[in-house]
Design goal:
The protein is an alpha/beta fold. The protein has two domains: 109 residues, Alpha-Beta Complex (Aspartate Aminotransferase, domain 1); 251 residues, Aspartate Aminotransferase, domain 2, CATH 3.40.640.10. It is 39% helix and 16% strand. Strands 1-7-6-5-4-2-3 form a seven-stranded mixed β-sheet, sandwiched between helices. Helix 2 packs antiparallel against helix 10 and helix 3 runs parallel beside helix 10. The longest helix has 39 residues. It is globular and about 70 Å long. The structure holds pyridoxal-5'-phosphate.
């Protein structure tokens, strides 16, 4: 609350440092989500770059802060170059995946209005694994969303169900690369064919994979086709604040054709003349742009390849270690960086294992489908904790089994 008289910064600062004890210890890899972190070196680059532009406002990039425009364009070019763009492509720098998706939905709606062939109410067809941001955006625009059950054998978008659900109201379909729920890539090639056949907008949600999958592929991993090169793809979201290792507040929305990008723009003639912005924000953080510029330039292709290797090697170590613990099994398939594991022993309740791990200081991600499971989104900091994690997990499973522990976990309040 606001004090009548301010306090000394040294005192407030010390207090804020102590607040951090309330949180899980992300620097020691205790979080399986929310953070993308490797070490103090990258963290300090983020801090310095962000604070250099902490006052500048992205809204004024055209007139007042050409430096921000220059850096923003560079980050967009980086995204375009790793995600299969052509000379016709273009992008928008946004505050996060949720905003990138919001603008993609808006662009698809404007495109549908423009074409005049789709019936209202407009509808988006998704697999149940697609991110909630699509419902959030559609809810703001009075667009309906239908979530179809994922294909049972590989947790991908069920193309048969999609074909039967397509009608004249559908303006958009979505493929995830990968999705956050199961960690698999939807078949973007097949979705592109369907999009062309039915004349619907195909968005690829590569918020997770955008700054990881291209480098994992360069490292020799087999990655399904998912980017702007796939015929039928009109837009793609890629978060720079996830595997791009920028500070929070940085994502890209890329368009195969720059003509489509104008569908996302906002402009208004008002008392002062013309107000316009490409994203859905007014004032926006210059620091987020500066930080994305700094990190992408400092890391370069070799840096991202190194981070991608650490991530995928860590996935391999953790998944094989988990499969070696009797009673647990990693759910297959998963692709890239997100996986989940379940119990295959009736005497080991997976949510009780999660509770035990929680009491040892691990923040545990839980998932419900295709099976109650513990989920991890791996990032490079986890390279340091594999052995500790597996030892604690093994001890937790043994304790749950011998003591017959049950969980009171309720996923509806999670
Ligand atoms: C994180 C994420 C989003 C949303 O991005 P935010 O940056 O959290 O707004 C969208 N899609 C997927 C697959 C994600 O993992």
């Amino acid at each position: 609350m606001l004090l009548a008289n301010g306090r000394a910064w040294t005192e407030v600062r010390a207090e804020m440092e102590s607040f951090k004890n309330l949180d899980f210890d992300w620097k020691r890899g205790r979080l399986p989500a929310y953070i993308y972190y490797l070490n103090e070196e990258i963290l300090n680059i983020q801090r310095e770059a962000y604070s250099m532009y902490i006052v500048e406002n992205g809204l004024g990039k055209n007139r007042a802060f050409p430096s921000l425009k220059k850096m923003e364009n560079d980050v967009i070019q980086t995204g375009l170059s790793i995600l299969g763009a052509s000379d016709q492509s273009a992008g928008i720098f946004t505050s996060g995946g949720t905003e990138s998706i919001l603008l993609a939905v808006k662009a698809a709606r404007e495109w549908a209005k423009h074409g005049g062939k789709k019936k209202k109410p407009y509808k988006i067809l998704l697999s149940e694994t697609a991110h909630p941001a699509f419902n959030r955006a559609a809810g703001l625009m009075e667009i309906e969303v239908e979530r179809l059950p994922m294909r049972e054998d590989d947790f991908k978008f069920d193309l048969d169900k999609l074909r039967s659900a397509l009608d004249d109201n559908v303006i958009m379909i979505v493929g995830s690369a990968p999705n956050y729920a199961s960690g698999t890539f939807d078949d973007v090639g097949a979705l592109g064919q369907i999009a062309s056949e039915y004349d619907v907008w195909l968005h690829v949600d590569a918020c997770v994979g955008g700054f990881l999958a291209p480098f994992a592929r360069m490292n020799g991993r087999s990655i399904p086709d998912f980017d702007l090169r796939v015929p039928g793809v009109r837009s793609l979201s890629a978060d720079v604040h996830k595997y791009g290792f920028a500070a929070k507040g940085a994502s890209l929305l890329l368009f195969t054709s720059s003509d489509d990008k104008t569908f996302a723009h906002f402009a208004l003639e008002w008392a002062r003349g013309t107000y316009q912005s490409e994203s859905n924000q007014g004032t926006r953080a210059g620091g987020a742009v500066a930080c994305a510029y700094a990190v992408t330039n400092v890391l370069g292709e070799d840096g991202y390849r190194r981070l991608a290797k650490m991530t995928t090697d860590t996935v391999d170590r953790l998944t094989s270690g988990i499969n070696d613990i009797g009673g647990l099994e990693v759910i297959r398939p998963y692709e890239l960086c997100i996986f989940a594991y379940k119990s295959v022993d009736p005497h080991v309740e997976i949510n009780a294992v999660a509770d035990e791990m929680g009491s040892k200081g691990w923040f545990i991600g839980r998932s419900q489908r295709p099976a109650p499971s513990i989920q991890m989104a791996v990032n490079p900091v986890h390279a340091n904790i594999c052995d500790e994690y597996l030892a604690d997990l093994s001890a937790s499973v043994a304790k749950v089994r011998t003591m017959g522990l049950k969980s009171h976990f309720d996923h509806s309040t999670y």
